[in-house]
Design a protein that fits this description.
Layout (H helix, E strand, L loop, with lengths): L1 H11 L29 E10 L2 E7 L6 E5 L1 H5 L2 E13 L2 E17 L8 E22 L2 E21 L7 E20 L4 E12 L3 E12 L4 E16 L2 E17 L1
Antiparallel strand pairs: 1-4, 1-12, 2-3, 2-12, 4-5, 5-6, 6-7, 7-8, 8-9, 9-10, 10-11, 11-12
Length: 262
C-alpha cells in the first residue's frame, strides 16, 4: 500500500517508499485431489499453497480519500512478515465440505526528514480471510467431479500506525473492518490419467461487500499415493466500503500448492 503510506506520511512529514497492504497477498483455492474413499466412506485432503499475486484497485482508511494501488508481487514480498495459506476438503460420496484459510502480516517504517512532529512512523497491516462451504456433485465419473457449492467468506483487514519521537512520540492509531459475504458457484476436477488432473474453481457472491468473486484453474500431478503438486492461476476481487473504509481490489497471479491426502 505504497501510495496509502505516502498519504499518511504527508500529514506527518515522513519520507518513505515502501509499504503494501497485508491484503495484497491473499487467498487461492485450487481443488486438491482427494484419495479414493476409505472404508468409512470419507476421503480427505489438505493443501498448503503459495500465491504470487499482484494487486490493483482502490483502498481508503483512517478517513483519508481512497487511493489507487498498483503493487507487483515483488513489492509485496519485501514487506512480508508472515503468511499462511491452506485449503482442505472432506468428501463423502457426492457430498463435500471445504475450507480455505489465509493470514498475512506486512510491515514497513521510515524516519521523518525533520523529526519535529515525529522521528519515525511504523505501519503494520494484517489480513485474514476464511472461506467455508459445502457442495454436491452434479457430475461424477470415477474420481472426476463437478460440484455445485455454497458457503460464506469472512474478511478482516486492519492497519496500525505508531509514532516514535517528536511531539507524537508514543501515539498510535488503528483502522480495521470485518465483513461476511455469501458465496456460490462450482468446483471441479477432471483426471487425465491416474497421476495428472485438471482442477477449477469459480465463486461469486455479495453480502456486506457489494461484490465478492474468485476464480482459479490449475493442473495437478501425483508424486506418490499421498502427495501431489498443483500449479495454476487465480484471480480474486472484492468491493467493500463502509464508514470511509474502502477495500475495492483485484488480486491475480500464479499459484503453487502441495496436496496431502489421508
Amino acid at each position: 500500500m505504497k501510495a496509502f503510506v505516502l498519504a499518511i506520511a504527508a500529514l506527518t512529514g515522513v519520507e518513505t517508499t515502501t509499504f503494501v497492504s497485508a491484503a495484497d497477498l491473499q487467498q487461492p483455492f485450487i481443488v486438491p485431489a482427494v484419495r479414493p474413499e476409505s472404508a468409512t466412506g470419507w476421503s480427505l485432503a489438505v493443501s498448503p499453497y503459495f500465491w504470487g499475486a499482484r494487486l490493483s484497485g482502490d483502498v481508503g482508511q483512517f478517513g483519508l480519500p481512497a487511493i489507487k494501488l498498483e503493487s507487483d508481487f515483488a513489492d509485496i514480498l519485501k514487506d512480508l512478515d508472515f503468511s499462511f495459506m491452506a485449503v482442505g476438503e472432506a468428501r463423502y460420496e457426492g457430498f463435500s465440505l471445504f475450507g480455505d484459510i489465509i493470514y498475512t502480516r506486512l510491515s514497513a517504517g521510515a524516519a521523518t526528514p525533520l523529526g519535529l512532529m515525529t522521528e519515525r512512523v511504523d505501519v503494520t497491516s494484517e489480513t485474514f480471510s476464511g472461506l467455508a462451504g459445502a457442495g454436491y456433485s452434479v457430475f461424477r465419473d470415477g474420481r472426476s467431479t463437478i460440484d455445485v457449492v455454497a458457503g460464506a467468506r469472512v474478511w478482516h483487514v486492519s492497519t496500525d500506525i505508531s509514532y516514535s519521537g517528536g511531539l507524537f512520540d508514543g501515539a498510535s492509531a488503528r483502522d480495521s473492518a470485518t465483513w461476511v459475504d455469501a458465496m456460490a458457484g462450482f468446483r471441479g476436477r477432471y483426471f487425465l490419467s491416474d497421476q495428472i488432473y485438471l482442477s477449477s474453481w469459480g465463486l461469486v457472491g455479495a453480502g456486506q461487500a457489494k461484490l465478492d468473486w474468485d476464480i482459479a484453474a490449475g493442473v495437478g500431478t501425483a508424486f506418490s499415493d499421498r502427495i501431489s503438486g498443483v500449479a495454476g492461476y487465480r484471480a480474486l476481487g472484492v468491493d467493500y466500503s463502509h464508514d470511509n473504509f474502502v477495500f475495492n481490489v483485484v488480486q491475480q497471479g500464479p499459484i503453487l500448492g502441495l496436496a496431502v491426502r489421508f
